[in-house]
Amino acid sequence: MKNYIETEPQLKAIEVKDKFWSFYQELIRDVVLPYQEQILKDEIPGAEKSGAIRNLRIAAGQEAGEFYGQVFQDSDVSKWLEAVSYVSNMEGTGRLEESARQVIHLMELAQEDDGYLNTYFQLKEPEHKWQNLLECHELYCAGHLIEAAVADYEMSGRSTFLNLAMRLADLIDSRFGPGKVRGIPGHEEIELALLRLWRVTKEQRYFDLAGYFLEERGTDPNYFAQEKSRKAWMDPAERNYTQNHRPIREQDTAEGHAVRAMYLYTAMADLAAWTADEELKAACVRLWKNVTEKRMYITGGVGSGAKGETFTVDYDLPNDRAYAETCAAVGLVFWARKMLGLDLSGKYADVMERALYNGVLGGMGRDGRHFFYVNPLEVVPGISGEVPGYEHVRPVRPKWYACACCPPNIARLLASLGKYAWGESRGCVYSHLYLGGVFHSLQNGISWKTVTDYPWEGRIQYEVCDHEKREKSALAVRIPGWCSSYSLLVNGRECTEEYEVKDGYVSIIREWTKGDTVSLHLCMEVKRIYANLCVREDAGCTALTRGPLVYCLEEADNGKRQNTLLLPAGSEIMERQKSDELLGDYIGLEAAGLRLQGDSEALYSETPPRAGGTMIYAVPYFLWGNRTAGEMRVWIRET
Amino acid sequence: MKNYIETEPQLKAIEVKDKFWSFYQELIRDVVLPYQEQILKDEIPGAEKSGAIRNLRIAAGQEAGEFYGQVFQDSDVSKWLEAVSYVSNMEGTGRLEESARQVIHLMELAQEDDGYLNTYFQLKEPEHKWQNLLECHELYCAGHLIEAAVADYEMSGRSTFLNLAMRLADLIDSRFGPGKVRGIPGHEEIELALLRLWRVTKEQRYFDLAGYFLEERGTDPNYFAQEKSRKAWMDPAERNYTQNHRPIREQDTAEGHAVRAMYLYTAMADLAAWTADEELKAACVRLWKNVTEKRMYITGGVGSGAKGETFTVDYDLPNDRAYAETCAAVGLVFWARKMLGLDLSGKYADVMERALYNGVLGGMGRDGRHFFYVNPLEVVPGISGEVPGYEHVRPVRPKWYACACCPPNIARLLASLGKYAWGESRGCVYSHLYLGGVFHSLQNGISWKTVTDYPWEGRIQYEVCDHEKREKSALAVRIPGWCSSYSLLVNGRECTEEYEVKDGYVSIIREWTKGDTVSLHLCMEVKRIYANLCVREDAGCTALTRGPLVYCLEEADNGKRQNTLLLPAGSEIMERQKSDELLGDYIGLEAAGLRLQGDSEALYSETPPRAGGTMIYAVPYFLWGNRTAGEMRVWIRET
Known about the structure:
2 copies of one chain form a homodimer. The first copy, chain A, has helices at about 20-40, 50-60, 75-85, 95-110, 120-125, 140-155, 160-175, 190-200, 205-215, 225, 260-275, 280-295, 325-340, 345-360, 405-415, 415-420, 555-560, and strands spanning about 15, 380, 420-425, 430, 435-440, 445-450, 460-465, 470-480, 485-490, 495, 500, 505-510, 515-520, 525-530, 540-545, 550-555, 565, 575-580, 585-595, 605, 610-620, 630-635, 635-639. The first copy, chain A, is about 35% helix and about 20% strand. The longest helix of chain A is centred in the first third of the chain and has 20 residues, at about 20-40. In chain A, a hairpin with a 4-residue loop joins strand 5 and strand 6 (about 445-450). Chain A has 17 helices and 23 strands. In chain A, the strands form 3 sheets. In chain A, strands 1-5-6-7-13-9-10 form a 7-stranded antiparallel beta sheet, with no helix packed on it. A 6-stranded mixed β-barrel of chain A has the order 15-16-21-19-17-23. A 5-stranded mixed beta sheet of chain A has the order 3-4-8-12-11. Chain A starts with 13 loop residues before the first strand and ends with a strand. Chain A is of the alpha+beta class. At the A-B interface, helix 12, strand 14 and strand 20 of A face helix 12, strand 14 and strand 20 of B.
């Protein structure tokens, strides 16, 4: 098997029927998206006002009033529309789709003759269009609109929304680019969106415009310093913040606002894959190494700095003051997916899985109505969210935010999970993640049915349930980096045919026929993980993992002062199959540990604390915060 | 011995000749005060401009120009003048005193006919006097001027400066108080100063005005909200910040800006002592317990929050983001001294000693030219001073600050050390701290000569070198709370006469004659100290102390990544007598420890770090930062 550039499959070709993920996809369909719709329409009492649909109605001339919300309020609508498109594959989405059609119709009415559509500028500053790209998210909103339109076209086959998006993209293209007006977006997003638009329309100008926005970034003179910015809350001289400090090919550390960085790197990797540009690929690989080897939490959270929601310095990963925005973890999944297209290596899928099962999933409550923006690895009520320096760390998920970027980002990612689980190229189907259901590979003409109880169990059964023609092709299944031992059977026996193990994937090459099975069995042992000692906060500590899941301790199980718990190095970690009303069915971990107990009430004393026996109980990190508010911590002191 | 209300002695009655402290007092005289004078006169190239003397010259009509600096710039001059007064007891201070006279003369010229003197308002906003007490430090500056004038009068006997201060105090008294204009200072200071002024002048109006400012604080309606504040950078509704949240008698937790709080509590304790007001005393005791039992670093640093330089919540004592302003530790010494006047208990002197030898002394470099404003208990170059949230933590002492409150505060405290070391009442002399030299007790007519090599050695020898009359009196010597065993000999023998051990003091009552000696021997063993487990950051760690000194680890001795050092519980700590060019003669501590070493370069791996043997070397905290910039930490992980 060569290092094909594999690509994401069409989502329409994937049916999800997965014990673990179907719960979340149905939650997205039944709760999250209807709830978000009500939010967007200002129908939830007590939640932050959105105004997003109303802004559109005003712009469409259906209502009088003023713009409400952030400069990027429109993007909430687009992300919702994108997610609705993805779930349209499922049963029972008629009402949501109908609502989406109405919103798209509103957008048509609101769109200006030249293609312009951005309610903030239309309603509030029509005379200032395209003049504050640094702060006003105009191109960012356009990017989200384009992504939603592409998703709609791919899922529904209808072209109304796509045409609307093309009119907007053409307007942008008519303005920006070589020989036209110079410009780059303050918040990257349009680059990856234009590449998506190019893939469905094959219009080269979109590809070129994406390339322009990417390559113009970081060049001198500093574009943002030239803008006549009127709001001026951002300092254009802080070029790191917007990844504008160097041309993208010269960047080698992840800087600035983490979500922006993730969206930029996603587009860079996508462009590098399509152009086979080795220099650009090298920049992507350097940035990947910097992020995943020096600046990423064990949960896949990135952007440790609360001030500016930014990357800080290597190994600076404070647990109790982590920012680790949900959107940044979502963005890391996007980026990892594109890196796989650039270079088929399991390390990218490992990080994609890590971020997905931990950093992303932990961002949403199991009720689908509460969301974290910030994802700490340690929470202490009374400090978190209260003491200066910890204001951003919430011990419980709020209902919604004035800046509501994260909830719809989780929705659109989880609703389109199939694109991340599967990949295909002419001659190969890739199973990057383990997702129950059926994948009809259009490129190979084979339909693979997958059955699994992952991540609780390590068995994944793949079965050919349909195939169009008899010809050799490969199934490449990922062997996770965390997995120390696995077995793989083809039709119940050791594979004796063509077979390759490389870069974290096992590829079985044969002429598949209906009923053929591939059985992968990953050993799901519990592990103790240690951080690099350069991570100050984690030295002397261990984190528990099982398969892709990172575990954490919660006050509900372990009481207060979890910083006084010690896990002896030799203590056996036992699995506990649990069923909990709030947490669902899951596997908990239990071990005999110690708890430091002080005999002195004094602030400082000569009396060392005693270590008494106690049981330590851990739950998957993604489930934290679904019970009573209390302490939480991932890293446990080890003795 | 009864619980006399003892009082601070006259500084003129004390000659300091102490191996440890004379170095610092001479440093103050020979370096710190001449250097500060040059700073105040803008004569040091490269240091922050002060403008303080120039402001006075402009106000005095000797120079044209505009006010420069902070609203409280005048206070730098007053604190310097106060310190110069204190060192005038020493040899070789003629030039400094002459400079001080010239500055006082400038102040006379600058003072307005009605007594007003504040160069900020005189030069910049003459129409806005007394209208922004919240932000503009007008009463605060007056307080420092009064303190300096009292010191000058006490040390020199001249009344020029005192009269100037009284004219200003009388102006304030004519304006504020019951039946006059309502007002309280945003930054407390004038209260304690007015009580000092009352003590030397015996003018009841100053005592009453101090009481007014104290008791009016925290009452409704919120005075600051009523002010027509024009600068308006502070929110008057944040009443905690200025200890204005409740009447002082009802306060029970230390809130807001730590230096303000210390100055307030100092005045409260002083007032309570003079009035024998049990309710006010109870408030002081509650606040004392809150600060010293829940909100104080082991170094005596207080005010852990960088945002606003404030107290935060109980047990919130982060080491690497500590604020612990030098001025707040100085203020804690002031307060502790007044608590001793309220209730003679060694616990107050213990905290006074802790803050003095650690939190205060660490604020100044051994060269007398570099100062810390912020006193962290852990420093990591690359993070400290650089990463957001750590900007305030400097790994090396800067030369000077735009806000230069700390350096002259250290100077005036160390220059007046005798007042803190000794106390007296009719019938008793109190040795709160151990300070070599001679103390002539005016109240008892006895002169005590003290010889000691404290804090390096625990022997303190007291000898009667003069006495006026034959009558019984007591010498009360403090037995520190940290001292587990001590011996006390009178004239070389076990004391068999009248003798009392109470609240941390041993009192020997006899008819003293010339040549009588009292020999105290404190066992100076090295101790491991443990923080209350509620202090999250310190659980599982130990701090090393010897006598009053807290120790710390520095990179110069232990290399980088000191967070990976482990001190086994059984490891013996050995004393090392050292002589170092930069650190002087001192006792270091050494112990066999372990260092965690990682075999993996990976950010996260399954390989636990190995613990290899290493020596751990600690230096006194007050000496940190005098060598190459590097890591520092007080709390050491214990196994």
